[in-house]
Amino acid sequence: MSILITNIKQLLQVHKHNLTVLKGSEMQRLTVKENAYVYIEHDTIIEYGKMENCEGIEAETVIDATGKIVLPSWCDSHTHIVYAGDRTSEFVDRINGLSYAEIANNGGGILNSAKLLQDTSEDDLYNQSIKRLDELIKMGTGAVEIKTGYGLTVEAELKMLRVIKRIKRESLALITPTLLAAHAIPEEYRNKKQEYIKLITEELIPKAAKLNIANYIDVFCEESYFDIKDTEAILKVGSKYNLRPKIHVNQFNILGGVALGVKHNALSVDHLEEMNDKDIKALKNSNTMPVALPGCSYFLGIPYTPARKLIDAGLPLAIATDYNPGSAPSGNMNFVVSAACIKLKMTPEEAINAATVNGAYAMGISNMYGSITRGKKANLIITKPMNHYSEIPYAFAHNPVEQVIINGQLL
Ligand code: NIG
Ligand code: FE
Question: Domain check: are 93 and 65 in the same one?
């Protein structure tokens, strides 16, 4: 199988040498090849260049991309797309004035989703989730991190992992699974949080490790959820099982989770709506990627991650959807790229870098995804006709995607 895309108006994120991360002022750089082609064989990018050098290349499928932009597919490094049902009733409660915390305290929130998921069969859960993923792929996402965390019992968390495994096997998208058993304290453990942590560390993590699915471990490090000590205890056991941390920190309160993540060599620290200078200092000279989730800020009406402060301090930044039923029921990365520009004051170049190469880094796959580089996976977006790539974030809530190539297959 071979595909040749010709006459590309702007080919973005072209890199001769493997690009795995962009930091600080480097994020301003987005390499663009005008009037270009890309040649794909099977699932791999074989060649690219200027149209004048395309002569003689033949392919089974030729796509004329006159007037269109081609770029690497979005890498969504933070999602919770395996969930059951929805939380539309809480949505209306919030419109009527209740806060996210008030809803959670009344037994709604994550516990509400956990109840629904526990009562949903594995097949049904798979069908609901793969449908969501298929929609994301059509919107240009080619790689997706998926977390557990709506099980909250050993059996239901393992059920989630098995569903994620099946999705990973069946989908053309690249999936990286994360174990987020410490997402909330289950009703049965309301005043016995330490017992739930023991269940996670002594029973669930070893059983999850036997399934050999999860790559990463996550904790919701937040007031009323898991504090610094709890988080550290879970990360320590996770590391014994080779689960690298990717953690929820600083969504509502600053507990010191950023520095803790860095200390434990977290691949990413996510949310960061609240940030202080100590957090920024902790991230400097680390291998930990900060991840902003503007869709969550938009939906909950909470502050946006201070992206400028992070990038201007020389740090890298990735952006992701946080797609979940409670705080961000959208997996549209095009919207996230727009919101990064409009609300986080990132330039289009920074936002596109944050959603491609840095997103890939935040899921541990930037050796094979996130840029147009010979030998990398053929996951590409072909846009509708447009004058300049800045139109992708500019025309917010429009769908810029016309076609996608995922794992070398044209959809
Ligand atoms: O990333 N903050 C914790 N977890 C999710 C929300 C979960 C939910 O409300 O269902 C998040 O925002
Ligand atoms: Fe999340």
Answer: no
The pocket around ligand 1, CB under 6 angstroms, is made up of 109-110, 113, 220, 248, 251, 296, 322, 324-327
* 57-105 residue pLDDT tens: 999 999 999 999 999 999 999 999 999 999 999 999 999 999 999 999 8
Residues 129 and 214 in one domain: yes
CB 137 within 8 A of CB 411: yes
Same domain, 243 and 379: no
Q: Of all atoms in ligand 1, which is nearest to the CA of residue 78? A: 1
- Domain holding 27, by residue range, is 2-73+370-410
Q: Closest ligand 1 atom to the C-alpha of 100?
A: 9
Residue 142 and residue 99 in contact, taking contact as beta carbons nearer than 8 Å = no
> DSSP for 173-218?
SEEEEEEEEETS--GGGTT-HHHHHHIIIIIIHHHHHHHT---EEE
At 351, list the tokens. Answer: 């936002």
pTM for the predicted model, two decimal places:
0.98
The Cβ of residue 201 has, within 10 Å, a number of other Cβ atoms equal to: 18
Classify residue 395 by burial, with Cβ atoms within 10 Å: 0-12, 13-18, 19+.
Answer: middle
Question: Which residues of the chain, if any, have pLDDT below 50?
Answer: none
The reported pLDDT for the residue numbered 106 is 86
Cα(368) to centroid of ligand 1, in Å?
Answer: 29
Between CA 273 and CA 303 the distance in angstroms is 6
Q: List, for residues 334-388, the tens digit of each pLDDT value.
A: 999 999 999 999 999 999 999 999 999 999 999 999 999 999 999 999 999 999 9
Same-domain status, 79 and 35? no
Output the CA 327–ligand 1 centroid distance in Å.
6
